[in-house]
Design goal:
The protein is α/β, with parallel strands linked by helices. The protein contains 11 helices and 17 strands. The protein has 2 domains: 2-158 and 295-347, Medium-chain alcohol dehydrogenases, catalytic domain (Quinone Oxidoreductase, Chain A, domain 1, Alpha-Beta Complex), CATH 3.90.180.10; 160-291, NAD(P)-binding Rossmann-like Domain (Rossmann fold, 3-Layer(aba) Sandwich). Bound molecules: NADP nicotinamide-adenine-dinucleotide phosphate and zinc ion.
């Protein structure tokens, strides 16, 4: 089956309409009519070949929501018409230690929703900037939010889980002081989630225009990180800091804000490295510098259910397919509060 999509033929070319193949659903497959797809900064890194190994044509998109259109004969628990989501993972080996632990995100055989090898045509996966997708049932999430919120649920599938998983792992909760750095797609979800978990949340932004806006997301305090004196007020006080920034920056300025045994976890994945931090900032107070990648399928379902229960969705700006290139430029300027989401109905020609 051929479906309409939006993608690029080279890293220096804009995205444009194209047609892509989707496989006929197998026994355990779910075919989904995609209603909306979020625009993650990873989409831009990949499609512009800022990260190594992009295969073209490249169709990005891993914040997918829609309705089940067909199911294979062996699919259990999902029916035609169900509201579902697909995040960054569409397959994995299913039998390693990580898959067994529900941490498919750390499986060496993880198949990403775009740009990963697959037996399907054309030989690599093509993502959610498309009308339909076919995915093994294990990687399809159930959405329990009201349908009216569906577009704003889409970003939970990447921005939501990528912040939820480290916040849980490093015990964000009552009595803990948590920083979230970079108030974009990921960061604004990090603030909402850490606040809902009961932590004292401090938002770090380079944008003066987000100072008040970040409070509305649930931050008790906001630091505009361009002002060193604002940073200095928080020296040695954080249990945990989650860094979502998409560009290289000074990690020492954040490490010194951690208490003894505090952790700075990086989820932002800039195309070029950060300047190396000063090891003394780690040694002196037994601090940790860590990383985290999205989250496993069971935890993604847990996050979606947590958000449905707490009424949490992303703050979004809905765009047409022909506005994707302009949306990328605005994302680079930090000119979005806080996530662009594509209305996939506008892919139809
Ligand atoms: P985004 O919406 O563009 O947000 C990034 C934010 O970082 C910006 O809004 C801005 O926030 C801040 N920022 C940008 N450039 C900066 C600079 N030069 N110096 C300081 N701050 C800067 O991007 P996103 O979609 O949230 O993604 C963020 C990063 O996470 C990307 O690198 C993406 O590839 C990565 N990512 C990683 C995972 C994972 O599994 N680890 C998953 C998804 C995405 P302020 O305006 O508040 O300063
Ligand atoms: Zn993403």
């Amino acid at each position: 089956m051929l479906v309409e999509a939006y993608g690029a033929h080279a890293g220096d070319k804009p995205l444009e309409p194209l047609q892509i193949p989707r496989r006929t659903p197998g026994a355990h497959d779910v075919q989904i009519d995609i209603a909306f797809c979020g625009i993650c900064h990873s989409d831009l890194h990949q499609v512009r070949a800022e990260w190594a190994g992009t295969r073209f044509p490249c169709v990005p998109g891993h914040e997918i929501v829609g309705r089940v259109a067909a199911v294979g004969p062996d699919v259990s628990g999902l029916r035609v018409g169900d509201l579902v989501g697909v995040g960054c993972i569409v397959d994995s080996c299913k039998h390693c230690h990580d898959c067994g632990a529900g941490l498919e995100n750390y499986c060496d055989g993880m198949v990403g929703t775009y740009n990963s090898p697959t037996p399907d045509e054309p030989g690599w996966t093509l993502g959610g900037y498309s009308q339909k997708i076919v995915v093994h049932e294990r990687y399809v999430l159930r959405i329990r939010h009201p349908e009216s919120q569906l577009a704003a649920v889409a970003p939970l599938l990447c921005a939501g889980i990528t912040t939820y998983s480290p916040l849980r792992h490093w015990n964000a909760g009552p009595g803990r002081k948590v920083g979230v750095v970079g108030i974009g797609g990921l960061g604004h979800m990090g603030v909402k989630l850490a606040h809902a978990m009961g932590a004292h949340v401090v938002a770090f932004t380079t944008s003066e225009s987000k100072r008040e806006a970040a409070r509305a997301l649930g931050a008790s305090e906001v630091v505009v990180s361009r002002h060193p004196q604002e940073l200095a007020r928080h020296a040695g006080s954080f249990d945990f800091i989650l860094d979502t920034v998409a560009a290289p920056h000074d990690l020492d300025a954040l490490l010194v804000l951690l208490k003894r045994d505090g952790t700075l976890t990086l989820v932002g994945a800039p195309a070029t490295p950060h300047p190396s931090p000063n090891v003394f900032n780690l040694i002196m107070k037994r601090r940790s510098l860590a990383g985290s990648m999205i989250g496993g399928i069971p935890e993604t379902q847990e996050m979606l259910d947590f958000c449905a229960e707490h009424g949490i969705v992303a703050d979004i700006e809905l765009v047409r397919a022909d506005q994707i290139n302009a949306a990328y430029e605005r994302m680079l300027r930090g000119d979005v509060k806080y996530r662009f989401v594509i209305d996939n109905a506008t892919l139809a020609r």
